[in-house]
Amino acid sequence: MSHWKVLAPGFMSSLQDRGRHAYRHLGIARSGALDWDAAWLANRLLNNARDACVLEITLQGPRLRLPAAAWIAVTGAPIQLCWRDITLPMNRPILVPAGELSLRGVGQGLRSYLAVRGGFQATTTMGSRSTDLRAGFGGIDGRTLRAGDQLPVGPQPAFRGRLPAPTRWWIGDDVDYSLHAKQIRYVPAGDPAPTLHGQRWRSSQRGNRQGLQLDGEPLPGAGASQLSEPVAPGTIQLPPDGLPIVLLADAQTVGGYQRLGHVITADLPLLAQAAPGTELVFQPVTLAEAYDAACLIRQRMVRLDLAIQSRQGPRNTS
Amino acid sequence: MSTTAHPVPDFTAPSFTALADDALLLQWGQQMDPIINARVHALVARIRRDSPAWLRDCVPAYASLAIFFDIIALGADAHHQVQTYVAGLLRDDASAAAAPTRSAVVRIPVCYHPSLAPDLETSAQALDMSVEELIERHSQADYRVAMIGFAPGFPYLSGLPENLALPRLATPRARVEAGSVAIGGNQTGIYPLAGPGGWRILGRTPLRLFDPRRQPPSLLVAGNQVRFVAISLAEFQQHKEAL
Lengths: 318, 243
Hints:
The complex is a heterodimer.
Chain A: E1 2-8, E2 12-16, H1 36-45, E3 54-58, E4 63-66, E5 70-76, E6 79-83, E7 86-87, E8 94-96, E9 99-106, E10 111-116, E11 150-153, E12 165-166, E13 182-188, E14 200-203, E15 211-215, E16 229-230, E17 235-238, E18 245-247, E19 254-255, E20 258-263, H2 268-272, E21 279-284, H3 287-310, H4 314-317
Parallel strand pairs in A: 13-21
Antiparallel strand pairs in A: 1-4, 1-11, 2-3, 3-10, 4-9, 5-8, 5-10, 6-7, 6-9, 8-12, 13-20, 14-15, 14-21, 15-18, 16-19, 17-18, 17-20
Chain B: E1 15-20, E2 23-27, H1 34-50, E3 55-60, E4 64-69, H2 71-74, H3 78-92, H4 94-98, E5 105-111, H5 120-126, H6 131-140, E6 143-148, E7 155-158, E8 173-176, E9 180-184, E10 187-190, E11 195-197, E12 200-204, E13 225-231, H7 233-242
Parallel strand pairs in B: 5-13
Antiparallel strand pairs in B: 1-2, 2-4, 3-4, 6-7, 6-13, 7-10, 8-11, 9-10, 9-12
Domain Carboxyltransferase (chain B): 14-220
GO molecular function, one term (chain B): ATP binding
Protein name (chain B): Carboxyltransferase domain-containing protein
């Protein structure tokens, strides 16, 4: 095991994997990578387990000192990635020598993912290495990165090269990270809840890993909070100000606001990348359509996996 | 959140809604009814005993229950399958669900010393009783964990004597200490972690309600019965040091 030293933490970087799935009855949030598709790709590019622990980077990335060579991959929102002064490409495996790795500003979108071969080796708590920022456990001491932190990394291949060696192939990213209108599919709660699809919304400045707040014309009928009931990532809540909130991975487990429905699992990664000001158009779908959308994503993952396996990746060169 | 004047809903016929692509929500009305809540916990116990392969989690609340499942294991009509499963349990097992087993009583030491209880005196004034009387009534009631929520391990306890109900603070405190025992409306609860909070703080327990390194991490689960045991400041400090 070696350790990567955090020289500068970036804006908000935390270790995340697939999250905790069996502890909601104890009030414990799921946590986990918000853009699951991107985290998955970063892992699979390195032949990692699909739920290995990655670094989720928001808006501005960290500066890291690598004591030895390592296989890395960066996915998600386009971010400037440099080894010393050499700019490196995204969405492919890269064997980097020891030295300083910098992730700078995110150009479009919100969140980028850095994976290392074998995954970051943070301690597993309740079946996950994810950082629970609200409760303060998991990841690195339950918080975002700070300068001076040491990120535990498993064994890496010996590498005598003096320069980073990206593969010649990559996986094309077809996600639109711009502020242009995004279609978000949701399953409406039905009467008497007001619907979201009558207007265009914008993601607000006030979002975080707990929830994405929508800006727009306040919905009528908002107000009375009700008896607290379970909520889930994807739940759309209507607080008294009439501006809906879509709950994300760090949301609490019960809530007392009116529920307007839920964003389908397939579209949660789009919300994870909706920078403040992104236009969001909500489209009502059925549960069957939500299921089909999830199947399409799994099929895409299988295709990508096959494509990655057929290339020379970390498995073959180490 | 009325506690009276509604007929008790038929427990065997909840409303079913999709909470998420991988979760079904069962609802039994909008009231804090202790009988309904006890039946929810009995149903959770029944499902956990049964432990179907697709089950990921059961999250009970006052009069509702979310069942999280593995959608890949169940396939396209997962919600319908889970609904059929639960409806079957409710039909076949109505008598068992109606008579929940009593769970063990968890005793929680609470120090009501003013140095740990910023709202004790003002609460006693608002309730028009002496501090001693407030402590006695609060510590001698039988409570039940109606649900866990708000924060990891935070128990919402039902069973607060009616004459102890207190409105939440107009402005929540930026920091409530871990272990603070508080009243909010007609409920009492315990803050497992330090953080913001708007309930009125009457005392503090030296016990750790939530510890991520412990298994299980939460001291209490929904359905537990709870008794408070009043302790002195010296006992509180001894207990703290022993932890």
